[in-house]
C-alpha cells in the first residue's frame, strides 16, 4: 500500500463531501424557498442524485479495481442494469427495515421511501461502484478480515458510519423540543448524512493512522 | 458421573441463598429510597356538613338557622378567585419608590403588578397582600388539592382512587356545590380531572403544552368579563397558566415574563373595577418558581407565593403592618369557607386568618377579639375532629405529640367556653385563648408536615447508593462466578448480615430506640455487603489484576447505557413503548451482524476467504446460521406487529390507541417467546450466557409489558382484571383483587423472569437438530470426550448435568446478570426521580415509572428465584434417578 493510494482516497472523499455541500447550496439559486428542512424531500432527491453522480464519475476516473476482463458493450449494459435492480432492491429492503423499526406503515410512505433512497445512495451505490452487483463480495467485505484493499476498507467504514448515523438520528424524535428537524424522517436523514460525511473524513485518516498494521491479502 | 450429590446440593442451596441475598440488597435499597421519596398519607372520605357542627358547644350568634350560614354567618356571598399559576411572592411585592439618586431595579418580573400596589396604598383597609408559604411538592395538581381541601397532599394519597385523579376528600368546591352555589370555572383543564362535573359552567383549556403561553390566558379573558357581567355565578374561579409556562419556557429573567405579568395586572385592574360590595377578590399564586423557572421541590423561591385579598367594603380594622405577613397557603381554605358561610372541609389542617374575622365597622376591641376567637375555635374543633378520625384510621402520626396537642386543645376549649359564659371577661383572657388556639393549630400543622410533606434526601441518597452497590456487586460476581474456588465465599454475607441484624436489633431493643424496619433492613444490607466485598477483595485483589475482574460486554454496554440514560428524559419515559422495540430491534440486528462479522452466520463456501475454525464444543452447526437469520427477521416482524397492540399514553395527543387491545396480544407473545429463546442458539459458549441475550431478554420483558396494553401510569392500570372469575366482586377482602390486578400488570415480568433459565438451556436443546449432521461431517473431533454408547444420540442438556459445578456457576451467573440488567433500570429510575424532583413531570411521569419499575423488579426477582429453583430441583431429581438406574444396572 502506498501513500499515493491514501491520497487519492482522500481526494475522492473530499469530492463526495463537496458534492453534498453543493447539493445544499446550489439549489437555492434556482429554486425559490429552498431549504433543507422545509423542502426536505426536494433536497433528498437532489442530494441523492448528486452523490450518485459523483460516485459514478469518480469510479470511472479512478478505477480502483481495474480488473474487468471482459469489456463488451452487452456485458457492460447488463452489469449496469443489474446495478440498477440491486439499487432498487436495496431501497425496498431499507424501507421494510424502517417499517420494522417502527416507521409508519401507511402514512408518510413517500418520506420513508426517499429516506431509504438516500440511505441506499450512501451505502449501496459505493458498494455497487466498487464491488459490482456481487453479493458474495459484499458479504466478504462486511466481515472480519474480509477487506482486500484500502478502497474496500474505506467502504466498510463509511457504510457502517452511515448506518450508525441513521440509527443515532432516530433518538431525538421522541423528545418534546418541538423543533422542525425532529419530524420523521428529517432527523434520520440528517443523521445518515452526518454519518456518511463522518465516515468519509474518518476512513482516510484511520487508514493513514493504521497503515503499518494493515496488510491486505490479495487473492 | 456425579459422585458427590451432597456437595452439589450444598452448592445449589448456596447459589439460591446468594441470589436471595442480592435480591434482598435491592429490596432494601428500594425500600429506603421509597421511604424518603414517596410520602404517603391516608385520604379520609368523611365530609363536614352544615347540620353537624365540628364539636360540642353552641355556635356563636345562633347562626345555624339562618339561610346562607352554616357554622358561621357568611360575610361575603360571592367570591372571585384568580389563580395565577406560579405567581411568586416577589412578582407581586410592591416596589419601594426609589429616591432620585438610586437607580431603578430593572428585573423583568419586579414591580409589574402596579394595580396591587396602588390599591394597597389607596385603600389599606380593603386590601392586604400576604406572602403565602406553599408546602412541597410544589406541583400544580398537588397545590390545587391543597388549596381546596386544606390538607397536605402527598404523592400517594392512600385510599384515593388511582383510576382517576378526582379528589375524594372533602373540599371547598364540594361544599360550595352542596350549598347550592353556582361555581363557574375557566382555565387549566387539570380542574376537570380533579372536580369532574362540579362546576355549573366551565371553560377548560389544555394545560399540557408548556411552550404555549397564551392559549389558556386568552381563552379565560374571552369569557371572564362577559361571565362576570352576566351575574350567573356565586363563585368565579379563573386559573391563568401563562406566568408558569413563561417560567418553564424562558425563566423569570426574560422580557416575556414582564409582558405576561403586565397582562395579569390588567386582568386584576379590570376585575377590581367590576367588583360589587358583597364580593371578595382573591388573587393567589399556587407556588413560586426557581431562578430557572421550574418548581416541584421545597426551596424558598418555589414555596413562596403571593396572596392578595380585596373587597370593596372594608375588610380590616387596622392598616397593614410595615412587614408583610407570612401565612401558610392552606390557611386560605378555612378562611374562605367561614367567610362564605360554609362548613370547613373535613380534612383541613389550615388555620383561619383571624385578622379577617375582626369586624371592621365595629370599633369595640372586645367583640372583635371574641369574633376572632370563635372563628379560631370552630377551626380548632374541626381540626381536632379530623385528627381524632385520622389517628384512629392510620398510625403514621407521632402518638406522644398527638397526645400533647389534644391536651392543649382541651385546655383552650375549656377556657373559651368559660369566656363565653362570662361575657364580661377581660381582654387579656381573650388574647390568651386566641394564642392557645393558634398554638394548637400550628402544632398540628407542624406535626403533619413532619410526617407527610418532607423529602428525606438522606434516605433517597442512601437507597440509591445501596442499589448502585448491589448492581456493582452483580456485575462483579457474575464475572467471578466462573472462576473455580469461588463458591465457599457465597455464604459469608448471609452469616454476616444475619449476625449484624441480630446485634443491631438487640442493641436497639436494649436502648429502647425506635427505628423503622426500613432503616434496619438497609443497615443489615450494608452490614452484609461490606464484609463480603472486603473478603472478596482480600481473596482476589492480590492474585489477579483488577482489570480482569470487570467484564467488557462491548456494544451491549452501550445499549445498557442508552437505556439507563433514557430514564432521565420524560419524553423517553413516555415514549418507552416505542423506544424499547427500537432498541430491541437494534440489538437483534446487531447480534445478526456480529455473527456475520465473526463469520458464523453463513457457510464459508459463500465467502472467498476461508474462515477460522469454530470451537467444536459450541454445539452449533452452520445450518443453524441461516436459521438464525430467519429467526432474526421473524423476530423483528413480531416486534413490529406487537407494536400494534400498544395503548396510548395520555401525554401524547396525536396517538390512536390500537383497537385490538385484547387477549390477541398474548398470542403474538408465545411466538415472540419461542423466537427469543431461539436467538441464543447461535451465541457460543456452553456454560455462560452472553450479555446480549440477557439484555435482549430484559428488553423483551419491557416490550411485552407495553404490548399487553399496559402503561406505567396509574390511570392505565387494568382494574377490570380484579373481576376476572369474580363477577360479583370480592366482598371486603382486598388482597385477592390486588393480586389479580398485579398478576395482570406484571405478567410479562413474571413470565420472562421464570423463563430466564431457558437462556442457558435452550442452546443445548437445539443441539439435536444439527448435531447428527455435524458428527457425520466432522468425525471424531467433538466426541473424543464423549463416551461411545452415547455417540448416536445428541447429549443436549445432559451435558450440563455432567458438570454440576459449572452448571450451578452458570445459573448463578445468569441470575446475577439478569438482576444486574433489571437493577440498572431501577437504579436509573430512582436517580431520575431524585435528581429531577424539581421537574415539571416528576409526579406525572418519573414517580409512577419508579413505582412500576420497582414493582416489576420485585416480581421479576421472585420469578427468577422460582425459575432457577425449579431448574435445580429438576436437575437434582434427574441426578438421583440416574444414580438409581446405575445402581440397578450394577446389580
Automatic annotation (TrEMBL), chain A:
Ranges that cross the membrane: 9-29, 41-62, 83-106, 112-132, 153-171, 183-209
Species of provenance: Vulpes vulpes
Protein name: Phosphatidylinositol-glycan biosynthesis class F protein
Entry-linked Pfam families: PIG-F
Cell compartment(s), UniProt: Endoplasmic reticulum membrane
Membrane topology field: Multi-pass membrane protein
Coiled-coil annotated spans: none
InterPro entries, alphabetized: GPI_biosynthesis_protein_Pig-F
Source species, domain of life: Eukaryota
Pathway: Glycolipid biosynthesis; glycosylphosphatidylinositol-anchor biosynthesis
Keywords annotated in UniProt: Endoplasmic reticulum, GPI-anchor biosynthesis, Membrane, Transmembrane, Transmembrane helix
Major localization listed first in the record, in broad terms: endoplasmic reticulum
GO biological process: GPI anchor biosynthetic process
Protease among keywords: no
From TrEMBL, chain B:
A single GO molecular function term of this UniProt record: transferase activity
Keywords attached to this entry: Endoplasmic reticulum, Glycoprotein, GPI-anchor biosynthesis, Membrane, Transferase, Transmembrane, Transmembrane helix
Superkingdom in the source lineage: Eukaryota
Membrane topology type: Multi-pass membrane protein
Subcellular location(s) per record: Endoplasmic reticulum membrane
Extent of the signal sequence: none
Pfam family, one: Phosphodiest
Major place of residence: endoplasmic reticulum
Keyword Transmembrane attributed: yes
Protein family per UniProt: Belongs to the PIGG/PIGN/PIGO family. PIGO subfamily.
Full protein name: GPI ethanolamine phosphate transferase 3 isoform X4
Organism for this UniProt entry: Vulpes vulpes (Red fox)
Lineage: Eukaryota, Metazoa, Chordata, Craniata, Vertebrata
Amino acid at each position: 500500500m502506498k501513500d499515493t493510494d491514501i491520497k487519492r482516497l482522500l481526494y475522492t472523499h473530499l469530492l463526495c463531501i463537496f458534492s453534498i455541500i453543493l447539493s445544499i447550496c446550489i439549489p437555492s439559486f434556482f429554486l425559490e424557498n429552498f431549504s433543507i428542512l422545509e423542502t426536505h424531500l426536494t433536497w433528498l432527491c437532489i442530494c441523492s442524485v448528486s452523490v450518485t453522480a459523483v460516485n459514478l464519475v469518480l469510479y470511472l476516473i479512478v478505477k480502483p479495481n481495474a480488473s474487468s476482463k471482459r469489456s463488451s458493450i452487452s456485458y457492460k449494459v447488463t452489469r449496469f442494469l443489474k446495478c440498477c435492480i440491486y439499487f432498487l432492491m436495496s431501497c425496498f429492503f431499507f424501507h421494510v427495515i424502517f417499517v420494522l423499526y417502527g416507521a409508519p406503515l401507511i402514512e408518510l410512505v413517500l418520506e420513508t421511501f426517499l429516506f431509504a433512497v438516500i440511505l441506499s445512495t450512501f451505502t449501496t451505490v459505493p458498494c455497487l461502484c466498487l464491488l459490482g452487483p456481487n453479493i458474495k463480495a459484499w458479504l466478504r467485505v462486511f466481515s472480519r478480515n474480509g477487506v482486500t484493499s484500502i478502497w474496500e476498507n474505506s467502504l466498510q467504514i463509511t457504510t457502517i458510519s452511515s448506518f450508525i448515523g441513521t440509527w443515532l438520528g432516530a433518538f431525538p424524535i421522541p423528545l418534546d423540543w418541538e423543533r422542525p428537524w425532529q419530524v420523521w424522517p428529517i432527523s434520520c436523514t440528517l443523521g445518515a448524512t452526518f454519518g456518511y460525511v463522518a465516515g468519509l473524513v474518518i476512513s482516510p485518516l484511520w487508514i493513514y493512522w493504521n497503515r503499518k498494521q494493515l496488510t491486505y491479502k490479495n487473492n | 458421573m456425579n459422585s458427590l450429590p451432597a456437595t452439589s446440593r450444598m452448592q445449589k442451596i448456596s447459589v439460591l441463598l446468594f441470589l436471595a441475598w442480592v435480591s434482598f440488597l435491592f429490596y432494601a435499597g428500594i425500600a429506603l429510597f421509597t421511604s424518603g421519596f414517596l410520602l404517603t398519607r391516608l385520604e379520609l372520605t368523611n365530609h363536614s356538613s352544615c347540620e353537624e357542627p365540628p364539636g360540642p358547644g353552641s355556635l356563636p350568634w345562633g347562626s345555624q338557622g339562618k339561610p346562607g350560614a352554616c357554622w358561621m354567618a357568611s360575610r361575603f356571598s360571592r367570591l372571585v378567585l384568580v389563580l395565577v399559576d406560579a405567581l411568586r411572592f416577589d412578582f407581586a411585592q410592591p416596589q419601594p419608590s426609589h429616591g432620585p439618586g438610586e437607580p431603578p431595579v430593572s428585573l423583568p418580573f419586579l414591580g409589574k403588578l402596579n394595580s396591587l400596589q396602588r390599591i394597597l396604598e389607596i385603600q389599606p383597609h380593603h386590601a392586604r397582600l400576604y406572602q403565602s408559604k406553599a408546602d412541597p411538592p410544589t406541583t400544580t395538581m398537588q397545590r390545587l388539592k391543597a388549596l381546596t381541601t386544606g390538607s397536605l397532599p402527598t404523592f400517594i394519597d392512600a385510599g384515593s382512587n388511582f383510576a382517576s385523579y378526582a379528589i375524594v376528600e372533602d373540599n371547598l368546591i364540594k361544599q360550595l356545590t352542596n350549598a347550592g352555589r353556582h361555581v363557574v370555572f375557566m382555565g387549566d383543564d387539570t380542574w376537570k380531572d380533579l372536580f369532574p362535573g362540579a362546576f355549573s359552567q366551565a371553560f377548560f383549556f389544555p394545560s399540557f403544552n408548556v411552550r404555549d403561553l397564551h392559549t389558556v390566558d386568552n381563552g379565560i379573558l374571552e369569557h371572564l368579563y362577559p361571565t362576570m357581567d352576566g351575574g350567573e355565578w356565586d363563585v368565579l374561579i379563573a386559573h391563568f397558566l401563562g406566568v408558569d409556562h413563561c417560567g418553564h419556557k424562558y425563566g423569570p429573567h426574560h422580557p416575556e415574563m414582564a409582558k405576561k405579568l403586565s397582562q395579569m395586572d390588567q386582568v386584576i385592574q379590570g376585575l377590581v373595577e367590576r367588583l360589587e360590595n358583597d364580593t371578595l377578590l382573591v388573587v393567589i399564586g399556587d407556588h413560586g418558581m426557581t431562578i430557572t423557572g421550574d418548581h416541584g421541590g421545597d426551596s424558598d423561591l418555589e414555596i413562596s407565593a403571593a396572596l392578595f385579598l380585596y373587597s370593596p367594603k372594608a375588610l380590616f380594622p387596622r392598616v397593614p403592618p410595615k412587614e408583610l405577613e407570612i401565612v401558610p397557603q392552606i390557611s386560605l381554605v378555612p378562611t374562605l369557607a367561614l367567610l362564605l358561610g360554609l362548613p370547613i372541609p373535613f380534612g383541613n389542617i389550615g388555620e383561619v386568618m383571624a385578622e379577617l374575622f375582626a369586624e371592621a365597622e365595629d370599633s369595640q376591641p372586645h367583640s372583635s377579639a371574641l369574633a376572632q376567637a370563635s372563628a379560631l375555635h370552630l377551626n380548632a374543633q374541626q381540626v381536632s375532629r379530623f385528627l381524632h378520625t385520622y389517628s384512629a384510621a392510620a398510625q403514621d402520626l407521632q402518638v406522644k405529640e398527638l397526645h400533647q396537642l389534644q391536651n392543649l386543645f382541651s385546655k383552650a376549649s375549656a377556657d373559651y367556653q368559660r369566656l363565653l359564659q362570662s361575657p364580661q371577661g377581660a381582654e387579656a383572657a381573650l388574647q390568651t385563648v386566641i394564642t392557645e388556639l393558634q398554638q394548637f393549630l400550628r402544632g398540628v400543622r407542624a406535626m403533619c408536615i413532619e410526617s407527610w410533606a418532607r423529602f428525606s434526601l438522606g434516605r433517597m441518597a442512601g437507597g440509591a447508593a445501596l442499589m448502585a452497590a448491589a448492581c456493582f456487586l452483580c456485575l462483579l460476581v457474575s464475572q467471578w462466578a466462573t472462576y473455580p474456588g469461588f463458591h465457599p465465599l457465597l455464604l459469608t454475607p448471609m452469616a454476616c448480615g444475619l449476625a449484624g441484624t441480630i446485634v443491631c436489633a438487640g442493641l436497639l431493643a436494649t436502648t429502647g430506640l425506635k427505628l423503622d424496619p426500613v432503616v434496619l433492613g438497609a443497615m443489615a444490607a450494608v452490614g452484609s455487603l461490606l464484609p463480603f466485598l472486603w473478603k472478596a477483595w482480600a481473596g482476589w485483589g492480590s492474585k489477579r489484576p483488577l482489570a480482569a475482574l470487570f467484564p467488557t460486554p462491548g456494544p451491549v454496554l452501550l445499549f445498557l447505557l442508552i437505556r439507563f440514560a433514557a430514564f432521565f428524559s420524560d419524553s423517553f419515559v413516555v415514549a418507552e413503548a416505542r423506544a424499547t422495540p427500537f432498541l430491541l430491534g437494534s440489538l437483534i440486528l446487531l447480534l445478526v451482524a456480529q455473527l456475520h462479522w465473526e463469520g458464523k452466520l453463513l457457510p464459508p463456501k459463500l465467502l472467498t476467504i476461508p474462515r477460522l475454525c469454530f470451537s467444536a464444543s459450541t454445539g452449533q452447526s452452520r445450518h443453524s446460521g441461516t436459521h438464525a437469520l430467519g429467526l432474526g427477521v421473524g423476530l423483528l416482524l413480531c416486534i413490529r406487529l406487537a407494536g400494534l397492540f400498544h395503548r396510548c399514553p395520555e401525554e401524547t395527543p396525536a396517538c390512536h390507541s390500537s383497537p385490538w387491545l385484547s387477549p390477541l396480544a398474548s398470542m403474538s407473545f408465545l411466538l415472540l417467546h419461542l423466537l427469543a429463546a431461539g436467538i441464543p442458539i447461535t451465541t457460543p459458549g456452553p456454560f455462560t450466557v452472553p450479555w446480549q441475550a440477557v439484555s435482549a431478554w430484559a428488553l423483551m420483558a419491557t416490550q411485552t409489558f407495553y404490548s399487553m396494553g399496559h402503561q406505567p401510569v396509574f390511570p392505565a392500570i387494568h382494574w377490570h382484571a380484579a373481576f376476572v372469575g369474580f363477577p360479583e366482586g370480592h366482598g371486603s377482602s382486598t388482597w385477592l383483587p390486588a393480586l389479580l390486578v398485579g398478576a395482570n400488570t406484571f405478567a410479562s415480568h413474571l413470565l420472562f423472569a421464570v423463563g430466564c433459565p431457558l437462556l442457558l438451556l435452550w442452546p443445548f436443546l437445539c443441539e439435536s437438530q444439527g448435531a447428527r449432521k455435524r458428527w457425520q461431517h466432522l468425525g471424531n473431533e467433538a466426541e473424543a470426550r464423549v463416551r461411545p454408547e452415547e455417540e448416536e444420540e445428541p447429549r443436549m442438556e445432559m451435558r450440563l448435568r455432567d458438570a454440576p459445578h459449572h452448571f450451578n456457576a452458570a445459573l448463578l451467573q445468569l441470575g446475577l446478570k439478569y438482576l444486574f440488567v433489571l437493577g440498572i433500570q431501577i437504579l436509573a429510575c430512582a436517580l431520575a426521580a431524585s435528581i429531577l424532583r424539581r421537574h415539571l413531570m416528576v409526579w406525572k411521569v418519573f414517580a409512577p415509572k419508579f413505582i412500576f419499575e420497582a414493582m416489576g423488579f420485585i416480581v421479576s426477582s421472585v420469578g427468577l428465584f422460582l425459575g432457577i429453583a425449579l431448574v435445580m430441583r429438576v436437575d437434582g431429581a434427574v441426578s438421583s434417578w440416574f444414580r438409581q438406574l446405575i445402581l440397578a444396572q450394577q446389580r
